[in-house]
Fold this sequence. Notes:
three-stranded antiparallel sheet; about 65% helix; 6 helices; single chain
Amino acid sequence: MLKNKSDFDLQQFFPYQLSLLAGRSSEYIAKIHRQEYDLSKFEWRIVATIGQHAQMSAKDICQFTGLEKMQTSRAIKKLVSRGLLHQQTCDRDRRAVLIQLSAKGLQMYTEIMPLVKQQEQRMLAGLSGYERKQLMLLTQKLSSQLEN
């Protein structure tokens, strides 16, 4: 138990600040994918991931994005119903289903990526090039340290 209130300052607690930053940055990017393309944050992650990798299984999407199986499944189902994704059975493993962007999904991905990159640049505008590189390196280092 803490001896007095000054022993802990939530505003100086790194996990708390990181959580706030993650939420704020996610909302900042969401201005584009939610307002202009009607994509939830989970749907956006899936579209961006498949756009980057061309074709993936739902399991691989979960691993790459860090989304839970249920979140991924619901988002995929909605994206398929909107005509943004196609699903097909894998030739090598008939139990696996591969997911890829449809023509409509690819068009959306092609339109949205420059806008998202511009939004990222605006978000990072207050940092120098060196600070941006350091931020990315430190973020990756912390992430890999937490995997152990």
